Structures are given as C-alpha cells and as structure tokens.
Amino acid sequence: MNLRALGADLRAGATTSRALTLRALDAAEATTTGAFLTVDREGALAAADVADAGLAQGADHGPLHGVPVAVKDNLCTEGLQTTCGSRFLEGWIAPYDATVVAKLRAAGAVVVGKTNMDEFAMGSSNENSAYGPVRHPVDPTRVPGGSSGGSAVAVASGIVPLALGSDTGGSVRQPAALCGVVGLRPTYGRVSRSGLIAFASSLDQVGPVASDVAGAAALYDVIAGPDPLDSTASERPPAHALEAALAPGTEPLRVGLPTQYLDGLTSEARSVLDAALAVPGFEVVPVDLPHTEYAVATYYVLASAEASSNLARFDGIRYGNRVQAEGASLQDVYLDSRTAGFGPEVQRRIMLGTFALSAGFFEAYFGKADRARRAIAADFTAAFEDVDLIASLTSPTTAFPLGARTADPLAMYLSDIFTIPSALAGLPSISVPVGEDDAGLPWGLQLTAPAFAEAPLFAAAARVEASR
Amino acid sequence: MSVDREVVRHVAALARLRLSADQETLFTRQLADIVGYAGVLERLPDTPVDPADGAAPLRTDAVVNGDRADALLAAAPDRDGDRLRVPAVLGDPG
Q1: DSSP per-residue letters across chain B
Q2: pTM score, two decimals?
Q3: Which one, A365, A402, B41, B67, has the greatest CB density within 10 A?
Q4: Nearest-5° Cα angle at A187, A201 to A159
C-alpha cells in the first residue's frame, strides 16, 4: 500500500477516507502480530468523515489528507490512551497532542491507533513491552526489531501506509530494516519532541515509517520544522523532501563505507551491502570513523543516564499509576509505584544510568562518554569533507528469533551497532529495504547525511529504491 | 571498576527501586557485564572540552503552554481540590 496510489484514488473518487480508514481499523483489530495497543474506531471514522467532506468541498490539505496513519504509543494523543508500553501509564490519557500528532491532524491524516513498543522505547526487539511482544510479519517466531516495532509491523503488514516512530539509538531504523519498510531518523532538532515521552532527551527524535521512500518523505514534510514548545527544535525552515524523493536526479554521489563497520560482517551481509550500493552514479569509497569502537558503550552510558533522570518524574504522585499500601510513607509510595510500574529492562537502564551519574563513577563513565560522543561527531564531520553520504547495513543481521537475546542485555545492545553512531552525532539517517535473506527476512541499507540534509538524503534513498 | 551487590543495593536505593534477592543477583551480573564493556571508554584520551559546546541556543523566556492547570491536575492519582494528596511527610499520618 503506497501513499501516492492511495492519494490518487482518493482524489479520483475511486475510494474514500472512510473506506480506507475502515479497512485499516479492521486490519489493526484483526492482526495477530500485537502491533497495536489501542485502536480508535470512533475518533478515526469521525476524522475520516471530516477528510472526505473537506475533499468534496475542495479543501485539500496535501498528501496525507484522508490517509490512515498509526502513531507510536510514546506520543501523546489527546483523549486517547498513551501507555509508552508501560504498566506505569496504563489507562493514562494525555491532556494534549504531541506537536507531531497535531501536525498530522492539521494535514488531514486519520490517526487509527497507537502502536506497541518496547517499554519507554528501551529495546531492540519489541520484547520489552508490558503488553506483550510484537511478532515479525513474515515469521511470527521472530522479532520485528524495536523499539518502534509496532509502527514498523503496522506498515509492513499493509495495515497503514504510514506510521510515526521514535529513534533514540536506532528505534525507527532497525525495526524498519528488519520488517522491510523505510524509516528515517531526522537530524536532532529537526522535528519537535513536544509530547514525545522522554527517554534520552539529547538523542530522542520522532521519525516517519512508510512503505516507500516517497511516503516517508511526505510524512517527514508534515512533521519537520520549528516549534515554540520545544526549545531544541531548530528554527531553520526545512527543505521539501517529497519533491527531492520524486525527482532524485542522477548526479554522481560519493558514498563512504566506514572501514570500521566492515569488521565482523558475515559474507552474506557484505554481499547484500555491496549489491545495495550498486546504484547508477554512486561512487563507493572507504572512509574512516576512528572512534566507532566507543559508540555502543557511549550510547548506553549517556542514554541510560538521561533516562534515569527523565524517569525520576514517574513517582506515582502527579500522573500514572500509584501503588500505596495501608499506612505507607511517601518513600514507600515512590518505591512501590516505581517497582510495580517499571519492567525489568527499564529498571536495568535506570540502574545503569544512576550508577553512571553517581558520586565516584561520574567522571569515569558519564564524563568519558560525553567526550567520546564529541569525538564520534567529529569523525563524521571529517568524513563528510570527502563524501556526500555514509552507508552501512542498518542491522548486522536480519530478524532474530524471539527470546534469542533477552537473557543477555549486552548482546541485545550490540544489535544497534550501526544505528548508534549517527544518533550520537545528531545526524539524519534513513533505512531502505534492499532485499531478503533465504528465509524471506528483509535487509535494510542505512544512509547517513550531514545535519539538516534530509532532502538530498531522501533523494539518494529514492535512487537506491529505484535501482532494486 | 567493578559492580558488586553492595553497589547494586546503593544504586537501587538512589533510583527508588525495590529489588528482591534474586533481582539483586541478576542485576549484579548484568550490570557488571555492561559496565565492564563500558570500560572501553578508559582507552579514550583525556582531552579538555567546553561543556557549553553544542548546547541548544537560548530562547526568549516566554510562556507558551497556556494555562493547563485543570487538565494536568486531573491526571493525578489522588488529589484534594487543587492540591495533590500524598502520605504525610511530617507528624502524625492520621
């Protein structure tokens, strides 16, 4: 299901937003993948009817008008439950829309429901949701990736053509790759984080998931831009990505392949990568990102430290669920609410982050990681003096079996080895499907561009897509 | 630097989490693995950095959220009018 075909059908009168929305709602309720946590039949049909009436009166809000979309459940939706995949927020209804959700509605999109995710976006397999795992659409014994696994599966299974995810260290790109759809992590500051439940504020970005590059670009165009509600949102106006994706050009591009990323790739993975980059006009050259070895450790120290601070607000007092035994003290309320509300991975990351910030360990871990992050960003700046884009696989493997990495958090963390460096550097990266393995499980190619170069990044991704 | 059971207990107390004995054992092993892996950072040379480098630019300090007190108070698990109700911190809890 692709956005342009749907838009053409809608405008030709061959279908209606109500018909598309009904089909999406039925599919979202029927799916056995676990992709959806909440389906909003009433709200979606009302929005669809408004969209249909608008089109009939000539009020066309653009490419997303009347199109069903899914929203990751860490984005606040007014009047609709937002759980963040956690028991702590079960039943919580946000009093406002996230800026990106408000922008979706203003563009005429129809929000059909909220997608499953790793609790507080912490995970690479979607096995950390308090509401059960999401299953891979090709093989239900395998993971879809995470943490935006529900959004990736909702698109990959054809339930919706577009969905919103969020990416802290790879949470849009890795599930997009594992499920065979397109996913973008925008430049840090390109998309507002207002109403995105915070995990690691210096890394979190909202990003589009779509069945094709043009769909992702159209969704990106709607959500990108300044926002007075987020002081880290850039005030520079975004370039038009959909135009770039639809007319990507043929000019020569120098594409850097980091030598550090090639160590340990299987021969199959290497041949997938080489074949994916056999695009007319792409000149593939080696580049050096010398601080790559520090990236995963840097990410897990910094992201966990920020999470331990951000999640301190979940105390059972102001919102979310409180556990209060008879005669409990205030301290007991904090302890019991947090212990009951947070699952094991969230507790582990809070513990790790608290450790990294605690007296005696701060300089050895947080201080060092902060310096490593700057060195990693400087590596990219230097590399982009020589190349237009940097390429890698999005994930070193295709989708792995459920349970394969749950007993060993460190092995799970290493799933993110290719997506973490550009997140630390604040750069835009896109994952594009580039074929399947023998079991039919998708591979994704990741392209990374300089900051705020989303339009040329989408153009390059469209060239990869067209050369398949 | 090693993570042992005492460190795990101390960190859990700081993080306001209760751990069972089994969880202490599990987290001690898992955090020791992760922190051991993060030991790679010790190899990074010490270069001075400006902490303000890369910080977000300052903006005008203007109220933009509007008055949402009622909506925000409505989300509280327990309240008394415009106040959040919590167990007594001082004196007789009765």
Answers
A1: ----HHHHHHHHHHTT----HHHHHHHHHHHHHHHHHHGGGGGS------TTTTPPPP------S---HHHHHHT-SSEETTEE----SSS---
A2: 0.97
A3: A365
A4: 90
Q: Which of B24, B28, B35 to mutate to test the interface with A (most CBs of A within 10 A)?
A: B35
Q: Give pLDDT, residue A410.
A: 86
Minimal Cα distance from B58: which residue of A? Answer: A231
pLDDT, averaged in runs of 10, over chain A (468 residues): 93 97 98 98 98 96 98 97 98 96 98 98 97 98 98 98 98 98 98 98 98 98 95 94 97 97 92 98 98 96 98 96 95 97 97 95 93 96 98 97 91 90 98 97 98 98 96
Whether residue A317 lies inside any domain: the answer is no
Taking CB atoms and an 8 Å cutoff, what residues of chain B touch A330?
86-89
Q: What would the two tokens of residue B26 be?
A: 């599990």
Q: Is B28 on the interface with A (CB under 8 A)?
A: no
The span from the first CA to the last CA of chain B, in angstroms, equals 47
Helix axes B5-14, B21-38, angle to 10 degrees: 100
Domain residue extents for chain B: 5-43
- Active site positions of A, annotated: 72, 147, 171
Domain containing residue A166: CATH number? 3.90.1300.10
Structural domain range at position A55:
3-246
Phi/psi for A97 (5° steps) reads -85, 140
From the list A189, A321, A375, which residue is nearest B77 (CB)? A321
With CB atoms and an 8 Å threshold, state whether A301 touches B40.
no
Number of structural domains (chain A) is 1
Does B61 contact A at CB distance below 8 Å?
Answer: no
